[in-house]
Automatic annotation (TrEMBL):
UniProt record similarity statement: Belongs to the enoyl-CoA hydratase/isomerase family.
GO molecular function: hydro-lyase activity; isomerase activity
PANTHER family found in the cross-reference section: (7AS)-7A-METHYL-1,5-DIOXO-2,3,5,6,7,7A-HEXAHYDRO-1H-INDENE-CARBOXYL-COA HYDROLASE, ENOYL-COA HYDRATASE-RELATED
CDD domains according to UniProt: crotonase-like
Protein's UniProt keywords contain Oxidoreductase: no
Protein known as: Enoyl-CoA hydratase/isomerase
Keywords: Isomerase, Lipid metabolism, Lyase
Any Pfam family hit: ECH_1
Keyword Isomerase: yes
Length: 259
């Protein structure tokens, strides 16, 4: 269905795989188009409550922009591609459902930024993550200068951005960039465990909780509390809320429907 992406659906979640392993899953023009289309489709799929974003093969999650593709592009073409890339990053960061990056190998430049656009990161111990853009005369352009400081603070973020240094999956975990770390052979299991822990909960509540956290950190506390109250009321009048309360009283597992 998509040229550069594979989508595999499991119970209540989908695995979105960047599928250009021969190019280390580098971000091409077509991949950006595919990411935008996939995120839009999955946002509307009521059977998908969460998403795992991964990279094909064992070597790389995504090594950033496909510089070979850019070699033959004019400046105008690069500018248009850049606008498309921004839309692709925006499609991930604004995805309304929980999305977890499963970083199996190199996540460099835009690849690292795609992971940072997700809600959480599960990294292989063997993975390497970095933002090397300043060494190419540019800066991170997929939210790296914005998302990374929000996760680890300004000084640590500046250290990684100014030096272009790569860090391991283990270091990413120790710095608070990755939520979990595992040997590569156990990475899928570790990620699936986290996703199952998430998707046992009510999907509408997950979406509203994500909305509150993502928007709330950008506003003052009073506005954030108002946002939370509005989101709470949306959940309160849902069928899932009724089911959750009924299941609790009946001491059974709830059967959520996302309504």
């Amino acid at each position: 269905m998509w040229e550069t992406i594979e989508v595999t659906k499991r119970e209540h979640y989908a695995i979105v795989t960047l599928n250009r392993p021969d190019a280390l899953n580098a971000l091409s023009t077509q991949m950006a188009k595919d990411i935008i289309a996939v995120m839009d489709e999955l946002s509307k799929d009521i059977d998908v409550w969460a998403v795992v974003l991964s990279g094909a093969g064992e070597r790389a999650f995504c090594v950033g922009a496909d510089l070979k593709e850019r070699k033959s592009m004019t400046k105008d073409e690069m500018i248009r591609q850049r606008e498309l890339f921004c839309d692709a990053f925006e499609a991930v960061v604004r995805f309304p459902k929980p999305i977890v990056a499963m970083v199996n190998g190199f996540a460099m430049g835009g690849g690292f930024e795609f992971a940072l656009c997700c809600d959480m990161i599960v990294a292989a111990e063997e993975a390497f993550l970095g933002l090397p853009e300043v060494g190419l005369g540019i800066i991170p352009g997929g939210g790296g200068t914005q998302n990374l400081p929000r996760i680890i603070g300004k000084n640590k973020a500046k250290e990684l951005i100014y030096t272009g240094r790569k860090i391991s999956g283990q270091t990413a975990f120790e710095w608070g960039i990755a939520n979990k770390v595992a040997p590569r052979g156990q990475l899928m299991e570790a990620t699936a465990d986290l996703i199952r822990e998430i998707t046992k909960n009510a999907p509408l509540a997950l979406q509203q909780a994500k909305r509150c956290v993502d928007l709330g950190v950008e506003v003052d506390l009073t506005a954030g509390m108002a946002l939370e109250a509005e989101a709470y009321n949306r959940c309160l009048y849902s069928k899932d809320r009724d089911e959750g309360l009924k299941a609790f009283n009946e001491k059974r597992k709830p059967n959520y429907q996302g309504r």
